[in-house]
């Protein structure tokens, strides 16, 4: 296990998914500064980059830190077949969307490409359109949802629904198999689906009876076309069949003992997820037949479990078939070989203790 302290309350962590930069990790913070006689309360944040070495050791090395507004969410642009540089999106507490290029000459650092205010309310979560790569959906603290198009020098809100939820829209996510479909979850306990082709005018479904508290995480499976997971403040993880969204798959509901703030499907195991469970640490969950089972608990954080992600290390076949120079291929082959005994890896962060951990789940794959 590796552990480092961040410069504020840690709430989001994301591994870079773009080859060959899989060992680059971004971590974000959000810190509320209390009001004084001279100033209203304000929200500060930091965005930091880390790498871990090719030798496979669990050590984190900071390469960059930027001072920003308070950050609620970050996401890397999904990789594509064309040679596009890694791009990181940031949802800001000041209502802004910021985009950063990863500068790949070591030491790795971020360069702000665009920052635009898109809302008078806070941006709470974001997701990249898996098909266009130039479109992002964003949820807002006033209950709204936005679809934003990325231009050459700015971003433009192309669609907006102001009252998608009665209270905070905690999360938004594209369906990885049907990129015209958006899912959203709110503090009103509603789980909704939207067809972007219809302009976010009306949800294609609004489920409001199953979740007993706010819906804070939604993740479509990258492996199974019709599987989708939701997490809620009611402390339950639910697996849904997208062909029948009136209720979750009955056997695939699991109480995790803490609000399920963030969910991530494993990139290697179609039946496995990791969950950030707020007051109850981090949980690795597996689907076994018709049931959800708890495979592992990670309780080494000392505060609210908020951010979590899987390392997406490549296979040797991917490295040798990619368009890398011979020296780079040799370097990456050694990196992959050294990591074979370490996979899978998880990065996690917790809020008030400002900590970022890198750890290896121990459970049967």
From TrEMBL:
WD repeats lie at residues 208-243. Transmembrane segments: none annotated. One of its GO terms (molecular function) is diphthine methylesterase activity. InterPro entries: Diphthine_MTase, WD40/YVTN_repeat-like_dom_sf, WD40_repeat_CS, WD40_repeat_dom_sf, WD40_rpt. Keywords: Hydrolase, Repeat, WD repeat. It catalyses: diphthine methyl ester-[translation elongation factor 2] + H2O = diphthine-[translation elongation factor 2] + methanol + H(+). One of its GO terms (biological process) is protein histidyl modification to diphthamide. The keyword Repeat applies. Its EC number is 3.1.1.97. It comes from the Eukaryota. GO terms for cellular component: cytoplasm. Pathway: Protein modification; peptidyl-diphthamide biosynthesis. Signal peptide: none annotated. SUPFAM superfamilies: WD40 repeat-like (SSF50978). Belongs to the DPH7 family. PANTHER family: DIPHTHINE METHYLTRANSFERASE. This is methylated diphthine methylhydrolase.
């Amino acid at each position: 296990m590796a552990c480092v302290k961040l410069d504020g309350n840690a709430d989001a962590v994301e591994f870079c998914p773009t080859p060959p930069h899989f060992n680059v990790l971004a971590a974000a913070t959000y810190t509320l500064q209390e009001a004084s006689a001279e100033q209203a309360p304000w929200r500060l944040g930091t965005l930091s980059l880390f790498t871990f070495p090719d030798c496979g050791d669990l050590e984190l090395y900071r390469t960059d830190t930027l001072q920003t507004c308070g950050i609620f969410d970050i996401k890397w642009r999904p990789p594509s077949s064309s040679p596009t540089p890694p791009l990181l999106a940031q949802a800001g507490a000041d209502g802004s969307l910021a985009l950063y290029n990863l500068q790949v000459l070591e030491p790795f650092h971020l360069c702000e490409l665009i920052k635009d205010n898109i809302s008078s309310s806070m941006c709470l979560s974001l997701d990249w359109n898996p098909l266009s790569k130039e479109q992002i959906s964003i949820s807002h603290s006033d209950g709204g949802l936005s679809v934003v198009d990325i231009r050459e020098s700015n971003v433009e809100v192309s669609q907006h629904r102001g009252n998608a939820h009665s209270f905070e829209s905690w999360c938004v996510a594209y369906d990885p198999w049907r990129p015209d479909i958006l899912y959203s979850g709110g503090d009103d306990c509603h789980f909704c689906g939207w067809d972007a082709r219809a302009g976010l005018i009306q949800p294609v479904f609004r489920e409001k009876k199953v979740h007993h508290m706010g819906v804070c995480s939604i993740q479509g499976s990258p492996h199974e076309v019709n599987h989708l997971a939701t997490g809620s403040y009611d402390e339950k993880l639910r697996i849904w069949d997208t062909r029948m969204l009136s209720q979750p798959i009955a056997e695939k509901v699991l109480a995790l003992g803490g609000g399920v703030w963030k969910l991530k499907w494993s990139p290697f195991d179609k039946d496995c997820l990791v969950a950030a469970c707020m007051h109850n640490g981090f949980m690795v969950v597996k689907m076994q037949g018709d049931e959800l089972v708890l495979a592992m608990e990670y309780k080494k954080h000392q505060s609210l479990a908020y951010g979590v992600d899987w390392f997406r290390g490549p296979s040797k076949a991917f490295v040798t078939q990619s368009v890398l120079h011979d020296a780079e291929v040799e370097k990456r082959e050694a990196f992959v070989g050294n990591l074979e005994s370490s996979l899978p890896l998880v990065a996690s962060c917790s809020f008030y203790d400002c900590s970022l951990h890198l750890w290896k789940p121990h459970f049967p794959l």
